Amino acid sequence: QVVLISGHLDSWDVGQGAMDDGGGAFISWEALSLIKDLGLRPKRTLRLVLWTGEEQGGVGAKQYYQLHKENISNFDIVMESDEGTFKPSGLGFSGSAEARDIVREIMALLQPINVTDVYDTADGTDIAYWMRDGVPGASLHDDINKYFWFHHSQGDTMTVQDPNQMNLCAAVWTVVSYVIADMEDMLPR
């Protein structure tokens, strides 16, 4: 069984793509790194996918889906971060009402950093195939007020990334992915 966390690497057309969507890739990698450093071993596999080709029609996501869809019942949740890594506010979630209630309980664990909101839908080109077929999905919600200042511009460099805000985003990604991966049962469909 798999909990998939992800970001994509493909917006370097004019800038470095550090914020869009390098930030999503960074926090996904950091989540796995933190879990490993803490010596935690969840019941399910945590899988990091660094998508490619999202800007070119989602070709990387389509290929991955085609290769793995026969095991769709083993995918517990698919998570994608694609709105930068500014100050997080919560998690977008698509799934059953029962699964949403579980995700709300998990997000309550993040009260100390004031990131507890659960929004009505998850967004993500790279996880859309899975969500369409009933796999629960999650996307990071953060403060995107400055997102389009840098989106697909020469300004999208590492200097846009605020380490403190990225750490908060990584904390959200880490807690949500680990708790879901370590629950007794998969999220209800």
From TrEMBL:
<keyword id="KW-0256">Endoplasmic reticulum</keyword>
<keyword id="KW-0121">Carboxypeptidase</keyword>
<keyword id="KW-0378">Hydrolase</keyword>
<dbReference type="InterPro" id="IPR039866">
    <property type="entry name" value="CPQ"/>
</dbReference>
<dbReference type="GO" id="GO:0046872">
    <property type="term" value="F:metal ion binding"/>
</dbReference>
<keyword id="KW-0862">Zinc</keyword>
<keyword id="KW-0479">Metal-binding</keyword>
<keyword id="KW-0458">Lysosome</keyword>
<keyword id="KW-0732">Signal</keyword>
<comment type="similarity">
    <text>Belongs to the peptidase M28 family.</text>
</comment>
<protein>
    <recommendedName>
        <fullName>Carboxypeptidase Q</fullName>
    </recommendedName>
</protein>
<dbReference type="GO" id="GO:0006590">
    <property type="term" value="P:thyroid hormone generation"/>
</dbReference>
<feature type="domain" description="Peptidase M28">
    <location>
        <begin position="1"/>
        <end position="173"/>
    </location>
</feature>
<dbReference type="GO" id="GO:0005783">
    <property type="term" value="C:endoplasmic reticulum"/>
</dbReference>
<dbReference type="Pfam" id="PF04389">
    <property type="entry name" value="Peptidase_M28"/>
</dbReference>
<dbReference type="GO" id="GO:0004180">
    <property type="term" value="F:carboxypeptidase activity"/>
</dbReference>
<keyword id="KW-0482">Metalloprotease</keyword>
<dbReference type="GO" id="GO:0005794">
    <property type="term" value="C:Golgi apparatus"/>
</dbReference>
<dbReference type="GO" id="GO:0006508">
    <property type="term" value="P:proteolysis"/>
</dbReference>
<comment type="subunit">
    <text>Homodimer. The monomeric form is inactive while the homodimer is active.</text>
</comment>
<keyword id="KW-0865">Zymogen</keyword>
<dbReference type="GO" id="GO:0005615">
    <property type="term" value="C:extracellular space"/>
</dbReference>
<dbReference type="GO" id="GO:0043171">
    <property type="term" value="P:peptide catabolic process"/>
</dbReference>
<keyword id="KW-0645">Protease</keyword>
<keyword id="KW-0964">Secreted</keyword>
<keyword id="KW-0325">Glycoprotein</keyword>
<dbReference type="InterPro" id="IPR007484">
    <property type="entry name" value="Peptidase_M28"/>
</dbReference>
<dbReference type="GO" id="GO:0070573">
    <property type="term" value="F:metallodipeptidase activity"/>
</dbReference>
<dbReference type="GO" id="GO:0005764">
    <property type="term" value="C:lysosome"/>
</dbReference>
<keyword id="KW-0333">Golgi apparatus</keyword>
